[in-house]
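Dear U.,

For the methods section draft, I wanted the exact inputs and outputs in one place so we can describe them consistently. I've listed the two proteins in the order they'll appear in the manuscript figures. Please don't edit the token lines directly; just add comments below if something needs changing.

First protein:
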Amino acid sequence: MPNFIFCVHIHQPVGNFDFVVEDACKNAYLPFLKILSEYPSIKLSLHISGYLLDYIHEHHRSYIERLRTMVKAGQVELLGAGYYEPVLTVIPEADRTGQINLMSDKLNKYFGVRPRGIWLTERVWEPHLPESLSNADVEYVVVDDYHFVKAGLKKEDLSGYYITEEQGHILKVFPGSERLRYIIPFEHPEKFIGFLKNAKNESSLFVFADDGEKFGVWPGTHDWVYKERWLKKFLDTLTNNLDWIKPVTFSEYIEENEPVGRVYLPTTSYMEMGEWALPAEASLDYTNLVNDIKTWHDGERIRRFLQGGMWRNFMAKYPEANWMHKRMLSVSKQLKNQKSKIKKGNMATASRHLYMAQCNDAYWHGIFGGLYLPHIRSAVYENLITAENIIEGDDKRSSETRVEIADIDADTQEEILIRTHIFNIFLLPHKGGSIQELDFKPKAYNLTNVLTRRYEGYHNMVRQKASEQRDNAAKSIHDVTKVRETGLERALIYDKYERRSLIDHFIKLGTTPDVILDAIRAGEFEEGGGFVNAVYDYRVVPEINEVVLHCTSTAFGIPVRVEKGIKTEGTVIAVNYRITNLSDTLLHTVFVSEWNTLLGFGLKARDMGDMEEFELQEDWLGIKFNMGLKPQAHLYIYPVETVSVSEMGFEKNFQALCIMPCWDIRVAGGDTVSIGLTIEVLDDSTKIYLEKNLCL
């Protein structure tokens, strides 16, 4: 008699909008559990990520009560995991254990059970995991049958769970069926029955392990699963076949069955992840190759040996993801190093914020928005900065301005951090002396949390499917190709350099404001200088805590030295430029200091004219951003927008407001011109804080 494990994983990323989480609860999570509770003979293995569990516990207590009853009755087995759904392989060992234990403790508190197994985030597997999981009292994990295929096994031969180990630390590993992931819930229940009946081994174990969002959140699935009654039909079909199908949980199966063998799984995730993790062009080529092989008469024989990239490649594919990841590691290290100096309660709170910043979604991109969603990235930075604020709150030096030099992003090059009680300013001397990250600490907000416009393999499909599709049938999320707005293909603009701030340009512009603005927005202006990605030398002036960056290159063939000093006092950052003509030839050009900020959502591209001051009032965030320009500059602004794919289809996302003050400069041979910018960021709490300090 075949055994069937019905395993569902439900998750919402840290920082997601409440209305999105609530819609998912009402459209999927609540009705799914309610209907399942009406079929007590059908077992469920369930994982709920910690952030979502907290939300449900606060807003839908009846769900918790129903689930508690089902757990007590033995109908549901709960799986653990890292509490905030981190990719376990890329966070520090102590954090892995901490997150898993936090989840186990919470499940024990709410439901009176400690999980024996875990849901492995995005099924990202690396061979060293068994030791970590064993040390966290994890007995089993579920991955995909794809993992086993990459170890040389055949899907049709997988008939149970396997043993693996690392340094003698044992872990039981279950293979989830790729075919069932595509059958459930997108095909009629008879397809499920037929799949089981056609199995090579009649006593096989069949494991469905996939996202619960496909039962009501993915496009078209709510109507299909509930209004068209797919779920009831499926459960009815399963109930009517209990004479030869045995629904079980993972733990029940382990108790009644021995492992079928030993396996050592390679570094991998599910099949689609390997496609997404590759560089854009390679991803497209890999996808085309896989599709071609499917048409060959013996294609499957070859396809089983093909594999795409590994999850860590996202940190090479997207420098923004790498920076976030290395910032997370640095905060984890700070917590570890300062542990003896931080109060116990503060330590627990700071650790919780660190764990939230480890939520996987913001660090990668595939069929879901992920890294492309600014609010998800912002949640990572908010939690990292909050954790640092707590650490610094117990540090007597926190009120001092400090300049720190270290290789933060693990690229062998030193970065410079100017740290005050108001700002963190991360400078990249080796990348144009630019600002990578500018944190406004009172609001725990990274003002320069922006994303570069870059080519993605699926952009070809955007061009092909520029008109919106209308199709009411439920589909797998991997088949969604809907274009959510007309003209989206016109937003496919790619940057020639990474989006940062304090980027130095010497440019030759057109003759009319419209021409200039269009050229700037499209990145088609003539770049006459060699400073954008140049290596800047630097010196620190400790008496005034100023960092001075300087570089010698050319501007339209004329040798030029650019020096910029950055210092901060209170809520003001001052940038002072000195541009020196090192030749005997007159330099007449336009100098631009480019800034990109995650503020100004909704603003349109605009020629602002000559200005001495530019101000943004962000009421939703409670921040006032002011840029002072001396002498006055001609100012252009425009939104930086990307085209990405999500579960809803192809869409445009705001990533930054680009602010480009332009100075028309004339510098005679041997002469120097000076340009100044000031950035002031305020909120009410900062004003009060400063006023109190002044009174003292």
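Second protein (the one for the lower panel):
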Amino acid sequence: MPSPSNPIIVQGDKSILLEVQNERYEEARDALARFAELEKSPEYIHTYRITPLSLWNAASSGLTAAEILSGLEAFSKYGLPANVTRDIEEYVGRYGRVKLIREGENLILTSDDKTLMVEILNHKKTQVFLREQLDARRVLVASGRRGHLKQALLQIGYPAEDLAGYAPGDDLPIALRPSMLDGKSFTLRRYQTEAAEVFHAGGSARGGSGVIVLPCGAGKTIVGMAAMAQLQTSTLILTPNTIAVRQWMSELVDKTSLTEDLVGEYSGLQKDIRPVTVSTYQILTYRKRGTEEFPHFGLFSARNWGLIIYDEVHLLPAPVFRITAEIQARRRLGLTATLVREDGMEGDVFSLIGPQKYNVPWKDLEKQGWIATAICHEIRAPLDENIRMEYAVAPQRQKYSVAAHNPRKLPLMQAILHRHVGESILVIGMYLDQLDEIAARLNAPLINGATPVREREKLYEQFRTGEVKILVVSKVANFSIDLPDASVAIEVSGTFGSRQEEAQRLGRILRPKNDPSTGSGQAASMAHFYTIVTRETVDQTFAANRQRFLTEQGYKYEILYEDDVL
């Protein structure tokens, strides 16, 4: 019940203020994360917002309006505004008011609300995808427009529950191994089993499409393989880059009954289409200059796929949404550490890949020992007077570059390195000239976009084995790279205010340091994430935006200044 000692204030505009210093802060934060989005996270008061999409994701995972309201009342200082209560009940109630079902060969949009059906039939966004009205509750959907209709329904505020089912795909026997190729035992962790089972839903039409949200290092790849083992079908796997392709292929052969001849790579380097094919977003979105056709979209119809896995789904390029809208009869599994997209297309992920099906807070897995305990530090460095003048007169689009290149970041970086002598350390940035200087100063290897794949893999292996202790990396290392022994990450520059990038960079150090990625042994470990920013510039502003993600996951930011470190 509401009480002045509680940590949250719910406001009439559906924003929620959360006191960080309150003893019930963590409990309230975890409750809010299920149905609200974090907007701002300064030191003492965090701001969340309830949105239609956040409520629909909550509803699709089984959360009811009554449960949401009960959670708000349990942590609120004051009574809930009446309009907030009504809006939550209304928006949660909208999910599934209309359904897509299959009747023979026909795709049908149906609802028990006859008036709503009239509205949808006459709305310009939806009527183009509909054909004849069968009765007051059923309308025939135009052939091949299942995904487009779902996008339109979301836009007008009535997200459809898709129960139309899926094509089975070609049969492919797949089993998870009881032991890996090196002889070590292999079993799924409980949350990995739960995630795969929630997605599969016993093979019913209520499963088969959706997004699993797990931290980097929590074994999203293994969840994907578990889903494949449940479906026993030919699978297309889409990844961010060639390194991720090789990682998936290696994991599939190591941990499943699939043999190398059943797993193919479809990339810029080679194009083998096999029962399980692993490709990249980059090759799929390739097209010749001046043309509108994407020649590699043919991969989606090259085999009778029963499952398509979208790895790091928050990076899915916009053109791939277009083809995904046309293949809604294929089962679709999205894997990600964050639903945040910098392009604001979270609604398309919801409509076309599927709603969020399973999410485990990072801190929960940290407490269980599955990912490392992380301490996050933001270190603020001033600009020298001459560079302050350069920053002041720089065009807006160049200000971040001036701030990110602040020379006073380098002594701070070296002071941090001195604190962690002997540990495995990543130095991460986005500007190649800055990284070249850092690599030369540290006499450390550098990996950037120009580094050949074979050289990258060699350096990653040397880093894993401890032969290389410090690795300087550009943003090519943000995604899908297995660096299980990294315990320290130092970020000297980032992609402006990218929260998704911060998720990946933190994830580079969260894997338990002694756990061989099996389901048995847990290993408590400590990791440190440092971001060095320039005070009173857009660098600090962008850092505050990236910090939102870390705060949302339960990590407290320690703010330090140059004198504190040096």
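Candidate sentences for the figure legend, describing the second protein: The CA atoms of residues 278 and 324 lie 16 Å apart. The chain has a mean pLDDT of 87.

Thanks,
Y.
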